[in-house]
């Protein structure tokens, strides 16, 4: 749902939503506790769930108290290979010289570098990882000892969970599993008025209506809807949200109906 410019800094809201606030949801508080425990145990953990539920945002919010130079964020736009992971670690560790040409030499260099400080490897969008990539990260983890072993966080969608769970050598090493799910109506009623000032005085009925129609219990959709509502209020000279404006924002926030394909006959 959200991104951050750098690990260890406060995360940014989706669409850079002005005046949005971090809400201490149950999932965020649980993630903060789980991440702290993972770091303390120098363990590997997995935080997973559908897109838009706030996994990345919660992880980076929890890591904001950690020294930024200890957080090694690995994030790839497409499916990486073990060599891609080697190269990314070489960059985020700020190692000097040219990357070694041979994998064994490269791995030896990375293991030595990772043992120097209590690093936290964050594998974001880990649903992109193949079994070989997970195994490679596990290999780096297993070669560490005691407090010199890096803590590892896998953060991703359902495929991340499935790959890890279905490989016994990987699943047995996961210290904590946390699944992110959509907020329930009671959580929406509690959290959305705290999320942005425009919802502070909105009626519970209006908030529930918006969530049922489009919000879906996810902060990403609520960020999008809020952004549209703010634009609509500015255009119309409004100071409060009403149902007419909410319906307009909802129409802009989602497809009106499924796109018809040629073979849908």
TrEMBL record:
Keywords: ATP-binding, Nucleotide-binding. The keyword ATP-binding applies. This is ATP-binding protein. It comes from Streptomyces fungicidicus.
């Amino acid at each position: 749902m959200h991104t951050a410019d750098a690990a260890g800094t406060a995360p940014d809201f989706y669409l850079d939503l002005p005046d949005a606030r971090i809400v201490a949801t149950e999932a965020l508080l649980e993630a903060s506790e789980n991440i702290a425990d993972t770091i303390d145990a120098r363990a590997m953990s997995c935080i997973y769930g559908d897109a838009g539920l706030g996994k990345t945002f919660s992880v980076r919010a929890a890591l904001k108290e950690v020294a930024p130079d200890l957080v090694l964020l690995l994030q790839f736009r497409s499916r990486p290979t073990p060599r891609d992971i080697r190269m990314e670690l070489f960059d985020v560790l700020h190692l000097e010289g040219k990357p070694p040409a041979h994998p064994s030499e490269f791995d030896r260099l990375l293991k030595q570098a990772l043992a120097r400080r209590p690093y936290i490897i964050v594998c974001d969008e880990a649903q992109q990882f193949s079994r070989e990539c997970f195994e490679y990260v596990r290999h780096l983890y297993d070669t560490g000892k005691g407090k010199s072993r890096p803590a590892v966080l896998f953060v991703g969608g359902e495929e991340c969970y499935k790959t890890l769970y279905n490989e016994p050598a990987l699943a047995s090493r996961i210290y904590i599993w946390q699944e992110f799910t959509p907020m329930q109506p009671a959580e929406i009623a509690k959290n959305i008025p705290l999320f942005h000032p425009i919802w502070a005085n909105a009626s519970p009925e209006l908030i529930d209506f918006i969530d049922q129609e489009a919000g879906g219990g996810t902060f990403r959709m609520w960020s999008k809807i809020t952004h549209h509502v703010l634009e609509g209020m500015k255009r119309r000279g409004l100071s409060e949200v009403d149902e007419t404006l909410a319906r307009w924002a909802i129409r802009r926030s989602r497809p009106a109906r499924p796109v018809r394909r040629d073979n849908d006959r």
